[in-house]
Design a protein that fits this description.
Chains A, B: Keywords: Carnitine biosynthesis, Dioxygenase, Iron, Metal-binding, Oxidoreductase. Two copies of one chain form a homodimer. Chain A is α+β, with helices and mostly antiparallel strands. Chain A folds into two domains: 2-75, 2-Layer Sandwich (NE0471 N-terminal domain-like); 93-346, Clavaminate synthase-like (Double-stranded beta-helix, 4-Layer Sandwich), CATH 3.60.130. The first copy, chain A, has helices at 62-66, 93-98, 105-110, 112-124, 139-147, 220-230, 232-240, 288-305; strands at 11-12, 17-18, 33-37, 42-47, 56-61, 102-104, 127-131, 159-161, 178-181, 193-200, 215-219, 243-249, 254-260, 263-265, 271-274, 312-314, 321-325, 329-333, 342-346. In chain A, the strands form six sheets. In chain A, strands 6-7-17-10-19-8 form a six-stranded mixed sheet. The first copy, chain A, has a four-stranded antiparallel sheet with strand order 9-18-11-16. Chains A and B meet through strand 2, strand 12, strand 13 and helix 8 of A and strand 2, strand 12, strand 13 and helix 8 of B.
Chain lengths: 347, 347
């Protein structure tokens, strides 16, 4: 309570930076006295201070105090702790197809409403599709810069997914099928927002159901929430078991490694991140009696995300640019004839 | 064990990407048969496969198997899991002053050995000081680009710490004393490597012990390791209690928030990150009976990092550029006359 004082001496008003040294508070501190004021709407507490300084007065409203009485803390409204405005909408195939999160490139680049729509789509649904993006490799950078700043990686500012007949460095260059995954989970922090610009595709006329190269996107939060309600123990396993994601950058002969649970929840228990990539997930270092349980949980989650009722799936045509929350949406593609397709990725 | 198979079908040899679908392994899988070969140096296991495919053969060396017999896993050498080469040297004031991690700008920019020395310093000690950097605002970008890539933030590519008489946005612009802290812990990931270039300082002749503006750096890992050995329960508290770091970007009226324990350890129990900043650390949301314990632990850690025997402390002179691991080294400065000093920061 002493550490929560918001008087002007303890918290710098314009920046909300704390000026009180929390580490110097006596862990056994007790109020000298207190007062209930304003018809029980305010509590005033007088705290002892060091040396010969007078007592420090802190004021707390009843409303502020009340929010901490529930557990888990799902009713906290203090914006020091939580973003009240965030709203996330979980979706399955039918829901996203009914209301596709699309917009036109010109609206996005030219109008404030377009930019806002794009950002809202990414926050709410974790995915947004831009149509009619000019077909050159720089456009992806323009789109990214309008939303924020680009995170450069070992691949440079952008990453071109072009066919490479000698796939020594990365399976992404091949035309192989790619199952559901999130990108770069082996980095110290997986990229948050990912952009995928389709520059070249097989002739749309021939892009029938079996032509291959079809993209699909799945809401990992939807699947995780399903697991939480139906198999809470398996949810617990996937949210508590650290899994090492590792990748060998063979050009530089350097390993990247990072450890995440498949499902990350924040300190309030809210879904935060999904890290899932069969290519880079290594067997977890678990005691023998927990191994089967982990694989059982992983299997259930994996079967759920692969169900067609969850897949938002379509053929990208040149000029389409998909923006996804890479820590929520799993993406993939069916196999294709690689020389016919060219994509450009940026984080 | 099945998931750890490293045959060419399960792991793509050049990239080490896994091709086996871990989620499809039957959690109750049992070997069909096994064989000990080559004078007990190799175990060959035959696993059942789905449909009518023949059994899958996996081979494991005795050495590889043996590394998993100890717990905690501090002897694992498999590079899929761990970096064998990393060596971190914890230091206090005497140790770092005896062997200061310094080098010349020209060596660093012009020679491979110089670059290597800089990177080694940052990896081993978490700090490296470059002398003789030309006094203009672009040099910091040159230094950063030679080491890696720059992480752009809301402040742009670089952040100028110049005096601002109206400190509405950030206390860093003032001449106030700044206690020990790491930077930007309220971001989704605190920057890893931080550069601080001193462009202007008070007249060195007058920069006596009490002139102010003295910089200090402390090895947070040293203090954390001290806590672990002497007060394991307090170490546990600081490494397990999520703390919200939050900051109000008042220009944009936007809160940044993220939650970290003060001391982060990785899945092997090794020290990983320190997040510590009294300005942005908020009171933890703990049950009543754990509050005093948390503040006791925080207090002990804080007292330890503030001890002068831990401080690497000196006056920056124009042309000095300090590179620190911002998730390990705490930094700060004593109060100063702000109009006389100009620094430039970049992450």
């Amino acid at each position: 309570l002493r550490d929560s004082c918001k008087c002007q001496a303890c918290v710098h008003p314009p920046t909300q930076e704390k000026q009180l040294d929390s580490a110097k508070i006596d862990p056994k501190i007790q109020p000298l006295s207190w007062d209930v004021e304003n018809n029980f709407h305010r509590l005033e507490v007088f705290w002892p201070q060091s040396a010969r300084r007078p007592p420090h007065a802190s004021t707390y409203t009843a409303e502020w105090l009340h929010q901490f009485t529930t557990r888990p803390h799902d009713e906290i409204t203090d914006e020091v702790y939580i973003n009240k405005k965030s709203s996330v909408i979980l979706w399955n195939r039918d829901e996203i197809e009914e209301n596709p999160p699309e917009l036109e490139f010109d609206d996005f680049m030219g109008t404030r409403a377009g930019l806002k729509k794009m950002l809202k789509n990414v926050c709410k649904y974790g995915i947004s599709i831009l149509r009619g993006v000019p077909l050159n490799e720089h456009q992806i950078v323009n789109v990214a810069r309008r939303m924020g700043y680009i995170r450069e990686t070992g691949y440079g500012v952008t990453f071109d997914v072009k066919y490479n007949a000698d796939p020594k460095t990365h399976l992404a260059y091949t035309g192989l099928q790619f199952g559901h995954h999130t990108d770069l989970a082996y980095r110290e922090r997986a990229p948050g927002v990912q952009l995928l610009h389709c520059l070249k595709a097989a002739d749309p006329a021939s892009a029938q159901e079996h032509a291959g190269g079809k993209s699909f996107f799945v809401d990992g939060f939807y699947a995780a929430q399903w697991l939480r309600y139906n198999y809470p123990q398996h949810f617990e396993t996937l949210s508590k078991t650290p899994v090492i994601f590792s990748f060998l950058d063979s050009d530089r002969d350097r390993w990247f490694r990072e450890s995440w649970p498949v499902i990350s929840v924040d300190h309030m228990g809210k879904l935060k991140d999904i890290h899932y990539s069969l290519f880079s997930m290594r067997p977890p270092l678990l005691p023998q009696d927990k191994v089967a349980n982990y694989y059982q949980a992983l299997r259930l989650f994996s079967q759920r995300i692969e169900q067609s009722t969850l897949q938002y799936s379509f053929y990208l045509t040149p000029g389409d640019l998909v923006v996804v929350n890479n820590r929520r949406i799993l993406h993939g593609r069916t196999g294709f004839e690689p020389s016919k397709v060219e994509r450009c990725v940026c984080w």
